[in-house]
Design brief:
- The chain is α/β, with parallel strands linked by helices and 500 residues long.
- The protein folds into 3 domains: 193 residues, FAD/NAD(P)-binding domain, CATH 3.50.50.60; 116 residues, FAD/NAD(P)-binding domain (3-Layer(bba) Sandwich), CATH 3.50.50.60; 116 residues, Enolase-like, domain 1 (2-Layer Sandwich).
- Helices cover 29% and strands 23% of the residues.
- The chain is built from 14 helices and 24 strands.
Length: 500
């Protein structure tokens, strides 16, 4: 029987993790008479809210029912990026022969070692989010247990009642479970338990062609699994730039992932140690695949159940989460929300930024608006897909007077030297100026490259002002396809595709 807060496998790394983020013998403190801020949920939004508020002198209570650190530490950013790094290194090693360093014959991947490294990294980082640190260093009262509003100004947890002036709901979201008959009986993985694997599944089915599905499908394929990805649309990453999604799709197919589009999964069943997915193909025919594991990456569902939101007078939608205004205030003027529980941007950095808005608005009469944020994001496939600002189709739909420039990475010297030529930098500017309105980058390190363009947009810095040491990949972001061939944004270059 696994106790709440524990995680498999129960090795030394995970025991260290649990000791930090849900200590088995933790004793909740005696509740204060009244708190300036009660924070429900200790994921990124909750931790940042508690940290900032406490550092500014507020009396803070932080409540977590599961493990501090939330998705990012436990089942999201940290374990996935650790695994993706290992998978990328394997792919680079297989290409090393092109650089004069062929792999020795018989070289084998140790999947168990990859996953153990991930657990070790997660345990090491977990100190930053630990209950002891937030109690002893941050100065918050940390309560482990299930929170429930008992009035518009009080929360119950572990037999205690916490009265508050202001509260923040940061209870996050969880993996959505598609309504597929037989799926629960057959058993399936999500991001919440896939990182507990210690043995590599020989055959893996991935349901969902969004960021989570694409990232993990590629990682498992590179780590030696036979992967089939099933998607209910006609191309991957439907929210991203079509050209960017096409490159990712081409790479996944080339790496041996079977992609099944426009399919409708009808049922799942378990046959012995195998699992069967039956689905309707795009042409209407019935198909099935037999696998060892099924991984579901089909969206997120907000954690609104059991919080007593009705008692608190907090309006919510079971599918979209807690309803907030642009100041992140709920229908209860003393209760705010931040992170996946209420926002369309379900990113760790978005939760971080929202928490800062909440603390200013809730405790210091601030008027900070969520809509004022410029939010970049990245899908960590290889190549990565990063974006900020408007998309090309949005510019067209708005009738904006926009010029769009695309620099293929094969025209960027650094990308050629690195052997990473698959991708592009696409920048949208206001016609007749170098003011950046949006950008999409497809590159091995697109998540790093997008930051410069984001900063330029935030401070109204034009493309012509960006200077880097030569030769960086980010040079493509200012329209510099090669040495001595500077592209000025209002003068289209022969090497640049002008879309508008």
């Amino acid at each position: 029987m696994i106790r709440f807060g524990e995680v498999e496998p129960r090795d030394d790394h995970n025991q260290k993790l649990v000791a930090n983020v849900h200590p088995p013998n933790w004793k909740n403190p005696e509740a204060a008479r009244r708190y300036n801020l009660v924070v429900i949920g200790a994921g990124t939004a909750g931790l940042i809210s508690a940290n900032i508020a406490a550092s500014l002198g507020a009396k803070v209570a932080l409540i977590e029912r599961h493990r501090l650190g939330g998705d990012c530490l436990n089942v999201g950013c940290v374990p996935s990026k650790s695994m993706i790094r290992a998978a990328r290194l394997v792919a680079e090693a297989r290409r090393a022969a092109q650089l004069g360093l062929p792999l020795p014959d018989g070289a084998q991947l140790d999947f168990g070692a990859v996953m153990e490294r991930m657990r070790a990294i997660r345990a090491r980082i977990s100190h930053e989010d630990s209950a002891h640190r937030y109690r002893d260093e941050v100065g918050a009262d940390v309560f482990l247990g299930k929170a429930r509003f008992t009035s518009p100004s009080s929360v119950a947890v572990g037999g205690a009642t916490l009265h508050f002036k202001k509260a923040v709901i940061a209870s996050g979201a969880r993996a959505a479970e598609p309504a597929i008959p037989g799926l629960a009986e057959a058993g399936f993985l999500t991001n919440e338990n896939v990182f507990s694997l210690t043995q590599r599944p020989h055959r893996l089915a991935v349901i969902g062609g969004g960021p989570i599905g694409c990232e993990l499908a590629q990682a498992f394929r590179r780590l030696g699994c036979e992967v089939t990805l099933l998607h209910n649309a006609d191309h991957l990453l439907p929210r991203e730039d079509v050209d960017a999604a096409a490159i990712v799709q081409r790479v996944l197919e080339r790496e041996g992932i079977r992609l099944v589009f426009n399919c409708r999964i009808e049922r799942a069943q378990k046959k012995g140690d195998e699992k069967v997915l039956c689905f309707q193909c795009a042409d209407g025919s019935s198909c099935e695949i037999i696998v060892d594991e099924i991984l579901v990456g089909a969206g997120r569902q907000p954690n609104v159940e059991g919080l007593g939101l009705e008692v608190a007078g907090v309006a919510y939608d079971p599918r979209r989460g807690v309803r907030v205004d642009d100041f992140l205030r709920t229908s209860n003027r003393n209760v705010y929300a931040a992170g996946d529980i209420c926002m369309d941007w379900k990113f760790t950095h978005a939760a971080d930024a929202a928490a800062k808005i909440v603390v200013q608005n809730a405790l210091f009469f601030g008027r900070k608006r969520l809509s004022a944020l410029l939010m970049p994001w990245c899908t960590y496939t290889d190549p990565e897909v990063a974006h900020v600002g408007i998309y090309e189709h949005e510019a067209r739909e708005r009738g904006s007077d926009v010029a769009t420039y695309t620099i293929p990475l094969e025209k960027v010297n650094r990308a050629v030297c690195d052997g990473e030529e698959e991708g592009f930098v696409k920048v949208h500017t206001r016609r007749g100026s170098d003011r950046i309105l949006g950008a999409t980058i497809v590159a091995s390190h697109a998540g790093e490259m997008i930051s410069e363009l984001t900063l330029a947009m935030q401070h109204n810095i034009g493309l012509s002002a960006l200077i880097q040491g030569h030769p960086p990949l980010s040079d493509a972001g200012r329209g510099h396809p090669g040495r001595g061939r500077r592209l000025h944004p209002h003068a289209p270059h022969a090497r640049c595709k002008k879309d508008f």
